[in-house]
Amino acid sequence: xxxxxxxxxxxxxxxxxxxxxxxxxxxxxxxxxxxxxxxxxxxxxxxxxxxxxxxxxxxxxxxxxxxxxxxxxxxxxxxxxxxxxxxxxxxxxxxxxxxxxxxxxxxxxxx
Length: 111
Fold this sequence. Notes:
Blueprint: H1 2-16, E1 51-57, H2 63-80, E2 88-94
Parallel strand pairs: 1-2
Helix pairs in contact: 1-2
């Protein structure tokens, strides 16, 4: 799990300039019965090593930046965590800055 965590975080920093120390992750492991996915959706053959990554970001990244992020994550997890690229599934959810509080009940980045 540590290699997956580091791979995703380092990819965010390198690909879309996520600030250093902006690392907040929830990682959970599921049994085969708890993670339901199509093993061949879009012609991509997935295995039991399937990794689902959901990333919450502020809006504003270009399609090119997102594509670079996806590729960087898949490359790092393939190289460092021995996860097949076919098993790396990534989803980005864009959330406006005013919808975040990093503590103290404050909206640190609201305008």
